[in-house]
Amino acid sequence: MARGTFTLAGGAAHSQPPSLQIKELNMRTLQKIGVLSIIPLYLLLHSAAWAADPTPTPAPKVLRWSGFDWQVRAGGGGPGPNNWDERNAWVDEQGRLHLKIANRDGVWSSTEIQLGVSMDRLGFGTFQTHMVGRPDQLDPNVVFGFYTYPPRDVGGDATNEIDIEFSKWGNAFAPIGNYTVWPAVNGAVRSWHGFDLVLDSDLSTHRFTWQSDKVSFQTLNGHRALNDSTGETASWVFDPRFPPAQTDNRLNQWYCSSHDPLQCISQKPQYFLINLWQVGGRAPTDNKEVELVLTDFTYVPNGTPPSPVPSSVPTPTPVTQPSVVPTTGPTVPPTATPRPTATPVPGSCYTAWGTDAVYLTGQRVTRNGRNYEAKWWTQGNDPTTSGQWGPWLDLGACTGTVPSPTSTPTAQPTVKPTVVPTTPPTSAPTVTPVPPVTPTPAPGCPPWQEGVSYAVGACVSYQGKQYTALIAHTAPVGGNWTPLVVPVLWQAK
Fold first, then answer.
1. Backbone angles phi, psi at 287, to 5 degrees
2. Nearest-10 Cα torsion for 91, 97, 101, 103
3. SS3 content of the chain, % helix, strand, coil (to 5)
4. Among 312, 288, 292, CA closest to 300
């Protein structure tokens, strides 16, 4: 209904303001019906008028930066999930983009921007930005992302994406740098390179070059031109045709089993986004706000880009707010080296999911007749209830026998052997069964607790055993970093 019109029960439209129509109706009918009877009709007419004048949906915030228009995200949702506040992204008088994780009145919020206002897509080429800040010193709960993301007609979540990310994913001992290439087909596993990073100043350059047969990544000290590799501090070339000597260790997970670039690298144009967000929606561990500055963004097409790809700066065409594009969940496991389950014949089942088992990135399980793959470290999260933003990726139905899960071994106290006397006893000794382990503190050491900072050599007790800290750390609340789950941090006495 147009603004300022009003329709009665018979369907006739009137152009007079509703308030005037109500007054005229009251004068005609008050002589025929009582005052009390007119009140419900009055409210009904007013409600119709209110419905005819809804509050318009505010247009999304758009920033003009580095020759492109960028749409600023607002609202809630994944990754994280996080609160996305458009106030956390702005361009200063020098033309530099500011990205911030903010705390306003106790409410933490993150920020994300997407290139273009009409769902612009970019194809093969070099993507580069110059940063002012210290991504090598980000809090473990903070993520900076510089990445492509597939439209729905290109692929689903956990496919096609190409990422530069700086985050420890909540694990203080994980590498801070992450280069990731997601496969172009469903059901395949992404390949990832992690790296420890120490920059020599607040100025750094980050770039990746996306080609049909490989993707090359670089991180450099200082602000460098596109063809300048001076000050390189990290790099990785993902070429499916040439796997590395070691395909699975702390800093490499190379899972392109087909060796086919058409399957392991996206071949179609994608969205491009930049974000700064909180792992699991959790505040930084130091409870401090975070801000990074990007001076510019450069995109240079290379080769023959797949169509359609803009060959120049996109011309903005205002449209309605596009649907929120989620980003993928964390792409890095804890420091423990993942041991993915061997890939069976397509359609067959994996080992059944176990409630108490710990699963790392890439490991696969079967639950209720369907196969799932862990997106990151997880324990106790039922794959059937994971959903799009949870730790499990649904790979589809399976057939065949489902092997039982291998249970996590329970810590047992060491039983000292009984000394056999020289003279045999007159009767056989009774063997005393080993009592079940109970989570009572071992003598001499305090019980292990989450949220406590432990120095090297600190002693704790857990499930009847004593452990010594190998690395100084703080066990995050809710992280389940028990001495049994994270043996890299503890050594049993």
1. 60, 30
2. -20
3. 10, 30, 60
4. 312
For residues 308 and 122, is the Cβ–Cβ distance under 8 A?
A: no
Domains of the chain: 6-51 (no CATH), 62-301 (2.60.120.200), 338-410 (2.10.10.20), 453-492 (2.10.10.20)
Q: Is 336 helix (H, G, I), strand (E, B) or coil?
A: coil
H or E, element range at 364: strand 364-367
Closest CA to 398 of 374, 353, 366, 364: 366
CA dihedral 300, 304, 307, 313 (to 10 degrees): 20
Average confidence (pLDDT) per 10 residues, the chain, 493 residues? 36 38 41 43 42 63 96 94 97 98 97 92 96 97 97 94 97 95 92 96 98 97 95 97 90 92 96 97 97 97 51 43 46 43 58 83 86 78 79 84 58 45 46 46 79 88 86 75 74 80
DSSP state for residue 281 in the 8-state scheme: G
Structure tokens at 242: 């040439």
Using CA atoms, how far residue 256 sits from 57, 181, 189, 371, in Å, is 45, 10, 7, 19
| Omega prior to 81 cis, within 30 of 0 | yes
Alpha-carbon separation of residue 23 from 5, 19, 42, 49, 102 (angstroms): 15, 6, 9, 14, 51
C-beta separation of 74 from 84 below 8 A = yes
pTM: 0.55
Q: Which of 135, 204, 208, 222 is nearest to 176 (CA)?
A: 135
DSSP state for residue 116 in the 8-state scheme: B
8 A C-beta contact, residue 277 and residue 80: yes
Peptide bond into 308 cis (omega under 30): yes
